[in-house]
Amino acid sequence: MYQRHRLAALAAACPLIIPAAALAQAPTEQAAPASTQGVTSYAPDFFAEARPTTALDMIQRLPGFVLDGGDNVRGFEGAAGNVLIDGRRPASKSDSLEEILRRMPASQVLRIDLIRGGAPGIDMQGKSVMANLIRAETNTLQGLIALADRQVYDGRNLLGFRAEGSGRVGDLAWEAGLVGGQGVDDGAGQGPRVRVDAQGVPLILSDVDSEGLGTNAALTGAIEKPLLGGQFRVNGRLFVDNFEYDERNLGRAGGPLEVSHDDVELAETELGAAFTRPLGTRTSLELIGLRQTANETFEATFKDPLEQVRFALESDTVETIGRGVLRWRQTQTLSWELGAETALNTLESRTRFDRNGTPVALPAANVEVEERRAEVFLKSAWRATPRLTLDSALRYEASDITAQGDVVLEKSLAFAKPRLSISWAHDPRTQLRVSIERSVGQLDFDDFVASSSLNTGVLTAGNPDLDPAQEWLVEAALERRFWTSGAAVITLRRAEITDVVDRAPVRLVGGGIYDAPANIGEGVREELALTLTLPLERLGVKGAQLRGEATWRRSAVDDPTTGENREISGLRALEWEAHYSQDLPAWKSVWGIDVFGAWRETYYRYDEISTTKLKTFVVPFVEWKPRPEWAIRFEIPNITERGMRRTRTVYAGPRDTAPIAYVEDRDIQFGRMYRLRVSRTLGG
Asked: In angstroms, what CA-CA distances link 188 with 180, 246, 596, 643, 646?
């Protein structure tokens, strides 16, 4: 529960200010993109009819393109998203691609190149499709001011704001932004809780009343100027967040009252620097330095007539990264990259668990972990023929991990990570992409320490002695572009996984068993993904567009408790979303509906199987732009009042030997909301 609430809190402010449903604006049919050798260029005229405000509005209208913000992992190389800015990755990890694109006015975009399958001089970062946003240099002050208000069904009134600007003083360019607001946990709400024994006899009948609220703010800034024959850029970010969750669980017919409260405080900082310099007509150098810190405190309390329980966690993490890349354009059709990256990651974590005032021991409750990691890589992109492109890479990483405190260990890891991607254009509108890659997952420091969800009674031990999961991933994608702005992509993936990270029992020396993250052996994951951009102009609906994506997924691994084959914990069998929009130029408006599909995820612990089902989330909206610089947007999030259902099958001991103790079901409903946002752009 803690991780779910934390993510809700971290994302709370931004959706209140700039709508995620900017997806739902249709590109024009009037301006055809230019396309050469797998690179399709979209000029501002392509997006003009929808009157985009930010670069994000434009990126989200690219046919057949789905924005990937990258992975939240340690290190720089493996955290890449699928958007470049002027051919380079942003020198930031904590500042998301979506936020960076939101801060960039649409008037600053010269064009967007959509690169399919690879191109010489472009680091695809392992992605099959990459967008490269090219900015126009301007000396005028540009910015955005936005205010938002959200009315929640339970009477809460939540505010958000955004103020951003960019400009130039001589040869120095600057950017600054302040974003803040409040957001609700839409997994909380009201609903019944039912617990029955193995024979279906009711043990608990109660009503849950819960709510979660996050309040956060982010301050960002950057400066860039010429230096030593190149460009030097410094960026910084400060993020603070507070999230609180309260739950009252009242038994029916005079049953007991259970009360729980979670409080999360988070403070993050980031300072990054990047230097790029040409070393000739065909060679360039890029240097990046990055340092991130995070301090987090989490306190959870639970009480009923029989007991009082308290769980507290404080952790400090620091990540320091240094990276250098040398790029060489050998010919117009062949380019190389040689680079190295080093990182130092540290974690200090302190945990306390009390039951009725008596401390209870937890495995890996207090630990200090240090990881020193280095990686070297060689990459190439070769357009062998006008139709055939090969993108390849060989990376090698090595790391040393030490832990002190409740767990003392030293271990060294080393992995080779090759990748080969081949793209073939059957004709200018049809492309086949095939790739094979060995990837290594990043160890999650959250798995190293104990965690808790007191309102469900689940305690999870930490495990610093984890190995990262490794997988051989084979992928094939077929893309067909049609009409002026239509595209369909079908993708098949299969991953053979070693050292799957899942859940397993940990037995204490003095007795007792806890659930913990662990390597549980070999597994497999298979996926079928579909992406569609369908302009409806030719079907008789002027200015309308339908966009959608769906991924079907299945997996298999041997359960460490029962030995039986099952799916990998936490992998959703189906994820999908659809976005319909229609431009109304005569009304200076766009209207539409965003639909985010239902999903299910299941976790297998040694004594419990828990399943969460989130129902479909529907958001109709209308946006009016009375003048080019003004935008007024109204939407109704969760108009269908969808909820979240959690079912736990709890055993009296390990699932392979113990009978079912009880089955508990919570069906929590969250009502609709109403949101109004007013924004104004500044400058050209």
From this structure: 22, 9, 18, 8, 11
